[in-house]
Specification:
Largest sheet: 3 strands, parallel
CATH class: Alpha Beta
Distance between the termini: 28 Å
CATH topology: Glucose Oxidase, domain 1
Helix content: 10-25%
Shape: globular
Strand content: 35-45%
Structural class: mainly beta
Order of helices and strands: EHEHEEEEE
Radius of gyration: 13 Å
CATH architecture: 3-Layer(bba) Sandwich
Number of helices: 2
Strand order of the largest sheet: 1-2-3
Number of strands: 7
């Protein structure tokens, strides 16, 4: 998905909270940044966390794991995704800082 034009959007990925493998690392995050994505919210693990902090690309995840995931080419897009008590609705706005995530139906400010 991050290979496509992001137009400032945030990709939300539900990895069922698994920390068994990383769902994104620095190479894929860099690709997303180059393609105009603002960032990702991942219900799962990421890798290369030190490098991710240096990329102008927001990353929120449950945790880290150095193990790469297998690319199976499965998944769906433009769906309601719910985890951590939050409903991520396509088209809603996501705001993040170091402490957390806010989802809003309207653009704030």
């Amino acid at each position: 998905m991050l290979e496509t034009s992001g137009d400032g959007d945030v990709l939300v990925v539900d990895g069922d909270g698994s920390l068994n493998v990383a769902l994104i690392g620095d190479a894929i995050a860099g690709l997303g940044a180059r393609n105009g994505w603002s960032g990702v919210v991942i219900n799962g693990a990421v890798r290369d966390s030190a490098v991710l902090r240096e990329i102008e690309f927001g990353v929120k995840a449950v945790g880290t794991n150095p193990r790469k995931s297998k690319k199976e080419g499965t998944g769906a897009s433009d769906l309601l995704v719910s985890f951590a008590g939050i409903n991520f609705v396509p088209g809603h706005w996501i705001y993040c800082d170091e402490d957390g995530i806010l989802v809003s139906a309207k653009k704030l400010g």
